Amino acid sequence: MKIKVGFYIGMVVVLIAGGSLLATKGKDAVSQAESRKQGVLEVEQTTILYQDSPGAIVKVNAVVGDSVKQGDVLLQVISAEGGEVDVFAPDDGLINRITVKPGDQLLQGMPVVILQKNTYYTDLYIQESEIQKLKVNQKNVAVHFPYLENTTQVNGVISSIATAPQFANLRMSREKGQTDLSMFLVRISMDSNADLLPGMTAEVRLDELTD
């Protein structure tokens, strides 16, 4: 009888210990999942606007797909006053689109070229309870790409933090009824990489960051 009682007590202890271990592991798994924020990798683009007095394009020095450096002359224009005006590349990058051609008349503010910059970014939605870990211009933010065969990680910089659109807010219950838990839209910029392509899944693990 004593042996049976001891056996049952032992089984209960094992079950309790096992349950506690599973609960702990479960909490750890949930915590890790919550700390991993994913977004889509996008390429940064800039629209170059004509900023001088009205004129006519006399020469286009680039074609779609060209790689250009900051300061390269993309367009040459003769203004209405007869002066020559050059339109320069504001950054290094790739010509994505040219919206004008020789002979076109230009007015101030007209878009002329869309430049694909040599930088990528991803936007993440972060809860207000976690946003204190992040600051604008924060460097060395590890960005992972979990679905690549070879584990890839690059360091990014937080370029902006803004209040997320209303649809991204979470509704939660607090002691004084229902209230909104605000979300923030965090943009992380990084240099281009031969292994990366726009559209890939980018992941930031908040538990790797320090306050």
Give your account of this protein's structure.
By secondary structure, this protein is of the alpha+beta class. It has two domains: 36-43 and 118-208, Efflux pump adaptor protein, beta barrel domain (Elongation Factor Tu (Ef-tu), domain 3), CATH 2.40.30.170; 44-116, OB fold (Dihydrolipoamide Acetyltransferase, E2P), CATH 2.40.50.100. Helix content is 16%, strand content 47%. A hairpin with a 6-residue loop joins strand 10 (141-145) and strand 11. The longest helix is centred in the first third of the chain and has 34 residues, at 2-35. The protein starts with a helix and ends in a 6-residue tail after the last strand. The relative contact order is 0.19.
Supply database-style keywords.
OB fold (Dihydrolipoamide Acetyltransferase, E2P), alpha+beta, 211 residues, transmembrane helix, single chain, 47% strand, four-stranded antiparallel sheet, 2 domains, Elongation Factor Tu (Ef-tu), domain 3, 1 helix
Short description:
This protein is 16% helix and 47% strand.
Question: CATH H level of the largest domain: which superfamily?
Answer: Efflux pump adaptor protein, beta barrel domain
User: How many distinct domains?
Assistant: 2
Basic shape: elongated
Proportion of helical residues: 10-25%
> So what's the CATH class of the largest domain?
Mainly Beta
Question: Strand percentage, roughly?
Answer: over 45%
CATH architecture of the largest domain: Beta Barrel
Number of helices: 1
State the secondary-structure class: alpha+beta
Order of helices and strands: HEEEEEEEEEEEEEEE
Number of E-type strands = 15
CATH level 3 topology of the largest domain: Elongation Factor Tu (Ef-tu), domain 3
Transmembrane segments: 6-24
Subcellular location: Cell envelope
Keywords: Coiled coil, Membrane, Transmembrane, Transmembrane helix
Organism: Peribacillus loiseleuriae
